[in-house]
Design goal:
7-stranded mixed sheet, N-acetyltransferase activity, Acyl_CoA_acyltransferase, alpha+beta, two-stranded antiparallel sheet
Length: about 160
Amino acid sequence: MAIQYRQMTTISPALRRLLLSADPQWSHVSDALTAGIGWAGYQDDVLVSASILVPHGATTLEVANLAVASTYQRQGLGRAMIDFARDWAIQRRYRRLKVATGTTSLGPLIMYQKCGFRVVKVEPNYFTTHYRRPIVENGVVLKDRLVLQQAIGSKSTGPVI
């Protein structure tokens, strides 16, 4: 079944919960919503995914807060959201996509790499510095953030820094 993407105009409780599943600190989500454009993915009018597209200058678009509802994970919806973001960015002449994730976020990290992203930066202690409470994933306290990028809109395959 096809996913229908709708620009966020209001944040329902279900959408808020979904966004918080990608980033547990609402102030970060709110900042991204203020700086960018939120998109929600619906399958048969059921909320299944969400993301916020945040511009960084004229050439880079960040795919922030990408979340897929737990009962819909591992069905290609994260990749579909990345594909939507890539198409949206190309139409607006961005030259690269950026994502950031934790070093302990193994599922998202693998998915991003399968989508063509490459690690371009490690930000040590990002999560211990920018979050009020420790985040534990896969039994490990999350400390460092990975920034990944990919060139879009051209035949370039390497990361653009």
